[in-house]
Amino acid sequence: MTFTGTIGKICMFPLSAIIRLCVALRIHPNILTATGVCINVAAAWALGLGEFYWGGAIIIIANIFDFIDGKVARELHEETPFGGFFDSVMDRFSDITLFVGLIYLYAEKGRTDYVIVTALAMMFSIMTSYTRARAESLITKCKVGFLERPERIVLFILGAFTYRMAAVMWVMLVLSIFTVADRIYYTWRELNGGIKVEDELEHRLAEIREIRMATPRGGRARTR
After folding, report:
1. In the chain, which ranges are continuous DSSP H helix?
2. By the 8 A CB rule, do 133 and 144 touch?
3. Chain CA centroid to CA 200, Å
């Protein structure tokens, strides 16, 4: 078994117990989702006060609820289209709340540069989700790009526990920009018959090579 597989099994042990408890109590998955959002508000409050360690710990607790709500829904046979929609919308609220907490912190400290970086990171993080949602109304799938919500949450936690949140905002901003751009390009490519720019360029180069081969050395192409 791999190292990451071992870590996964260790983490799943307490989570499985929580899932079984929620199923036994028949707690509705939407309640778990809403609870996770409320806990993320507390995390944002801690971040806004500069209590990064506590903020990181609370984010972990909040995302336990975000992880188990789908599992509980499956066990209770409560998986519905509205449940998926509600979970997705609440995830956006949770993400925005964390960014707002940091924006408040940097505004209080008079760090306009960090306020701008965090605001841009928030904007492109939202656009990461929006570009996928809008693309998948036009094409089958659009999961390209590196930085999705799980990666953002991991970055938030790392930034909180290492007290390097400003650096994390820069990383999140850059990776989010690339992810949005990648999804825009991917959607354009799929809507245009799946033609890759690389393939089109190769085709053009082949045409140029053919023209050069048909052209006599030291002169123009023969005409008839």
Report:
1. 3-25, 29-48, 52-75, 81-108, 112-135, 149-162, 165-191, 197-214
2. no
3. 30
Phi and psi for 214 in degrees, rounded to 5?
-85, -10
Of the candidates 53, 52, 72, 76, the one whose C-alpha atom is nearest the C-alpha of residue 64 is 72
Encoded tokens for 139: 């094409």
DSSP 222: P
Task: Say if residues 168 and 71 touch (Cβ distance below 8 Å).
Answer: no
Q: How far apart are CA 212 and CA 81, in angstroms?
A: 58
Q: Please give the span between the terminal C-alpha atoms of the chain, in angstroms, as a whole number.
A: 71
The answer to whether residues 12 and 64 touch, using CB atoms and an 8 Å cutoff, is no
The pair of structure tokens assigned to 216 is 């006599």
Name all domains of the chain by residue range, CATH numbers in brackets: 3-214 (1.20.120.1760)
- Our CA angle for 156, 161, 163, nearest 5°, is 90
Average pLDDT, rounded, for the chain: 87
Phi then psi dihedrals of residue 43, to 5 deg:
-65, -45
Q: What is the pTM of this model?
A: 0.80
Q: From CA 58, how far away is CA 39, in angstroms rounded?
A: 7
d(CA 96, CA 221): 63
Of 92, 1, 98, 76, the closest CA to residue 31 belongs to: 76
Q: Please write the tens of the pLDDT for every residue from 119-175.
A: 999 999 999 999 999 999 999 889 888 888 889 999 999 999 999 999 999 999 999
Spatial separation of the C-alpha atoms in residues 41 and 53, rounded to whole Å: 15
